[in-house]
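thread: overnight batch results

M.L. [08:02]
morning all. the overnight job finished for the chain we discussed friday. pasting input first so we're all looking at the same thing
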Amino acid sequence: MAELALRQCGYDQFPLYDVSADIGYLPKPNQAGNFADRYTWSLNERSMLNEPWFPDRDHGVLLLGNSLVWGEVRMLPKDKLGAQLQAIVGGPWRIWSVGAGSWGNLNEITYLQHNRDVVANIHSLIWIINSGSFSERSQWRSDLTHPRSKPWFLSVYLLKKALAPWISSRLPALNSAASSALPLLSDEPKHTFIDYLGKTRADLRSRITIVWYPNLDELTRHNAEVEGLAAWVRETATANDCAFVDLRSDVRWKASCYRDSIHPSVDGNAILARILQERARL
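M.L. [08:03]
and the structure it wrote out:
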């Protein structure tokens, strides 16, 4: 009865992922759902949120990133960053959002390389980057975080998903592995980022906005390593004629904009959308 009730209430209506070595993982295209009979979501043929893809070099905007762009399943479509930005800019502008939880710079660039016709037919690109963006390419690790198919037993799956954070927090081996952080800036992401920006067509490159997004700790504390990485991203953006927006320098971006240690709340998305509307090169 519990299994039937969970399915009847839509708790099996979550996004599924394609997995490959080059991109790591990507939300499957052409899927939609209504999680918990409340949180509707849909993905177009290019795994983008918001609406079907079509070329628009006059008003099309691609919003690229990780879970900061993707949002979460338990968030109304209108409350996600892309939709909030769309509501502010209005008119003929069309915002497409693409990303996946825990994606890094290499995953995002691979998506752009796999969808060259999209890049060739948009007006501008807004790229949300944080201090975790320049580590190794994120690869698929678990169906609990990036499910590839619907589980046979939903109740068991949801129980495992609920218990996973509790279990990992109590296993020393997992904690030590998780705490062995990679360098903030390693060679491959650095070189790939520079190379990609340098090869982007000139008219689009001048309409790329790189947004530095701090996590809550980075917003409230000084970290020399993070400061150095942010400065390098700023220099790289400027050298390639891209705009650079550092949220730490905007007085509107505060600790109250977060719903956890990194992700924006609904109000945070609204503030971020307003900042992008004013400072991004649309």
